[in-house]
Amino acid sequence: MGTEAYLIVASLLFLIGASGFLLRRNLLVMFMSIELMLNGAALLFVTFARHWNRMDGQIFVFFIIALAAAEAAVGLSILIAIFRLKHRVNADELSELKG
Amino acid sequence: MSAAGRGREGEWALSFHAIIFWALAAMTIVPAIGIVVSKNIVHMAFWLLGTLLGVAGLYLHMEADFLGMTQVFVYIGGINVLLLFGIMLTNREPLYVRAAVKRPAIASAVLLGVVVAVGLIQSFGATEWHTVKDAVAPGLADASAKAVVNGDGTAATLGTYLLSDYILPFEIVSILLLVVLVGAAYIARRDPEGGSA
User: Fold this and answer.
1) How many domains does chain B have?
2) What pLDDT, in 10s, does the model give residues B176-190?
3) Cβ of A46 and B75 within 8 Å?
4) Does B61 map to a domain?
5) pTM above threshold 0.90
6) Is B79 near chain A, with CB under 8 Å?
7) Strand partners of residue B48
8) Which end of chain A has the smaller Cβ count within 10 Å, N or C?
9) Could you tell me the residue range of the domain that residue B10 belongs to?
10) Residue A50 contacts by C-beta under 8 Å, 6 or more apart in sequence?
């Protein structure tokens, strides 16, 4: 398949993730949407790594995966801490910092 | 593709390639939509598993074998399981989550989708990446393609890169992961002095 087809799939993945992030209010679901966006971006990196026949893109995807793992660990532990304090994990109900 | 020489066999191989690609693409996109529209949060976690598997398949399809396996191990074995733990730890009995109720959220999501889609399509068409290829390729193309053709896979090339050209980011990511895991354990722990936090 040509590079364009992969570009379309990656963009769709990113757009679905972005709209999910805006549409859903549960922190866990927003978190999943972030993972979708990260996967879309990583797919683009691999696509162009293949397109240019170079490995740099794949190396970057390794770093993206490592950062996603870091984000997952910190994000979920913050989520659990919030749940312990507030007993809810909806983003629009956590408005204590709003003036 | 030089049509006359290859004949029907080449075409068949090409269409088989295409069928695999579209199957993997559907396997990636359909569960992704499921995440956005589903109401049951456990279902969402399993939809995410489908998407991650689809992306891993696309990596394999693009001859990034080591990356595809890393995707399976780290995303599915690590992040998705962590997410399921998060779901189990933070949700009471009904596992249903509501969608955005406020109209501005829906409007902004639709607006963002349209704007980004138009921008991406525009930039795919306008940039000259498909012509730049010929200018860049010969000198800079590395051993990866040969390795794939020889059946060696990409792991050796990736390892060489990670420990030579990309050694600094590699070490920084190692330290980042250590710091993150210590921090996560600290944030998520129970306060030993009996507070609720």
Assistant:
1) 1
2) 999 999 999 998 887
3) no
4) yes
5) no
6) yes
7) none
8) C
9) 1-100
10) A3, A57, B62, B63, B64
CATH code matching the domain that covers A3-91, chosen among 1.10.287.3510, 3.30.70.1450, 3.90.1150.10, 3.40.50.720:
1.10.287.3510
Contact check, Cβ <8 Å, B181/A73: yes
Q: Which chain B residue has its CA at the smallest distance from A4's CA?
A: B124
Task: Identify which of A54, A55, A59, A3 has the alpha carbon closest to the alpha carbon of residue B139.
Answer: A54
* Binary contact (B196, A5; C-beta < 8 A): no
A56 vs B contacts (CB less than 8 Å): 161
B170 occurs within a structural domain: no
Per the CB < 8 A criterion, the answer to whether A5 and B25 are in contact is: yes
Bridge partners, residue A90, by sequence: A26
Distance between terminal CA atoms of chain B? 64
* pLDDT tens, residue by residue, B92-118: 655 666 655 667 777 888 888 888 888
For B100-144, give the secondary structure using H, E and C: CCCHHHHHHHHHHHHHHHHHHHHHHHHCCHHHHHHHHHHHHCCCH
**Does a structural domain hold residue B7?**
yes
Centre a 10 Å sphere on the Cβ of residue A86 and count the other Cβ atoms it contains: 12
Instruction: Give the domain CATH number at B8.
Output: 1.20.120.1200
Tell me how far the alpha carbon of residue B132 is from its chain's centroid. 26
In angstroms, the CA B95 to CA A7 distance is 35
Q: What is the mean pLDDT of residues A67-90?
A: 87
Q: Does B172 touch chain A (CB under 8 A)?
A: no
Matching residue, tokens 């910092």: A97
State which of A24-33, B129-138, B173-182 shows the largest mean pLDDT.
B173-182
